[in-house]
């Protein structure tokens, strides 16, 4: 297992319930794949450097994960189906 960071950018224009449901969907995906969330840093609603879907703000969350890097491809397939998850990036942390 290795340490990874996941920066997730969610749609800020949906209701709080819909956003929380999308975030919980990502967390359930981690749980079903035996991925341990070491830390969850909610940055909240921030201005972006560029617009996505004509919106210049987004809801940011940074996850510190303990996971096998081989799962990233399968996780991405499922995460791409989440309409409120606009962008995400996995980065392997140095040991």
Verbal overview:
The chain is of the alpha+beta class and 95 residues long. It has one domain: Alpha-Beta Plaits (2-Layer Sandwich). Helix content is 26%, strand content 49%. A four-stranded antiparallel sheet has the order 2-3-1-4. Strand 2 and strand 3 (55-67) form a beta hairpin. The longest helix is centred in the N-terminal third of the chain and has 17 residues, at 16-32. The model has no long low-confidence stretch (mean pLDDT 94).
Question: Major β-sheet, in short?
Answer: 4 strands, antiparallel
| SSE order, one letter for each helix or strand | EHEEHE
Structural class: alpha+beta
Number of helix segments?
Answer: 2
| CATH C-level | Alpha Beta
For the termini, the CA-CA separation is 11 Å
C-alpha geometry: globular
Kindly report the spatial arrangement of strands forming the biggest sheet: 2-3-1-4
Low-confidence stretches: none
**CATH fold title:** Alpha-Beta Plaits
Question: Would you tell me the overall average pLDDT?
Answer: 94
Q: Could you tell me the radius of gyration in angstroms? A: 13 Å
Q: What is the strand content?
A: over 45%
Please give the share of residues in helix: 25-40%
Total domain modules: 1
Number of strands: 4
CATH architecture: 2-Layer Sandwich
Key phrases:
single chain, 95 residues, alpha+beta, Alpha-Beta Plaits, 4-stranded antiparallel beta sheet, 2 helices, globular
In short:
With 95 residues, this protein is α+β, with helices and mostly antiparallel strands. It has one domain (2-92): Alpha-Beta Plaits, CATH 3.30.70.60. It has helices spanning 16-32, 72-79; strands spanning 2-10, 36-52, 55-67, 85-92.
